[in-house]
Amino acid sequence: MPTIAITGSASGIGAATAEELRRSGAGIIGVDLRDAEVIADLSTPEGREQAVDGVLSRCDGVLDGFVACAGLGPQVDDPGLIAGVNYFGTVALLDGLFPALRRGKDPAAVVVSSVASTHVTWDENPLAPLVQSGDEPEVDAVDAAVAAAGEYRGQYAYAASKNALTVAVRRRVPEWGAAGVRVNTVAPGSVETPLLRAGEADPRYGQAIREFVAPIPRHGRPEEVASLIAYLMSPRAGFVHGAQFVIDGGVDALLRPSRF
Ligand code: NAI
């Protein structure tokens, strides 16, 4: 029975993924703020350490899979917190669990990024200069980096954190491939979860989310993202490594048909 750690396992895409992988026979170590095997706050260095230690002690240092779903949405009014969970929290777990994944059977990881990762380029990503050193910057530095977006700074921090996250995964692809650990990202569009509902309820973003119609004219379901993640985690995806899979009902192709 493969052992798989999943962050954000208490809700939305993470909960659906935990359920799908459990059904296929995996043992799940969920990591979340609540309702999980490992309770940890990924916004702080101490919480991330607690999460890595908690997973490692439950899997005896051997992990077959890791799925990073924990994240905060653009409506959260603290750019430092968005970057802290979406980028630094995820990267700390990827790196902290890598040695255990190397010892696993057919090991694989999937990181949930977002279509928003393509809304800024790395060259123009305001977080790029701040994440290069690997050390987490002061919250004030993150605030200052996205301040130009005014009341939409949460959206800017969100897109920047997801762009940086996809870049971080892609940069690990040579080392992870050589170690036999596959890693890919998925980039969902609007998926029906508490995170999306909080965005819909937000006065800044709600109307745009509600009125936008995708080529497949509905929001995605968490189970649909979970089924893509389950495929990427399985040996059937044995040659899939370093890729980003958009799952957005056709929005990316609608908005930029000639850029891919
Ligand atoms: P959700 O809000 O249903 O689930 C997120 C989970 O992350 C929650 O269980 C929450 O407790 C956990 N979490 C948040 N902060 C944490 C922290 N500091 N420490 C530990 N756990 C924490 O949201 P959803 O939609 O399932 O999001 C999952 C991932 O999918 C996120 O990374 C999100 O950015 C991404 N995503 C979601 C989209 C959507 O439309 N729902 C679209 C694109 C990407």
UniProtKB/TrEMBL annotation:
Keywords: Oxidoreductase. This is SDR family oxidoreductase. It comes from Amycolatopsis cynarae. The lineage of its organism: Bacteria, Bacillati, Actinomycetota, Actinomycetes, Pseudonocardiales.
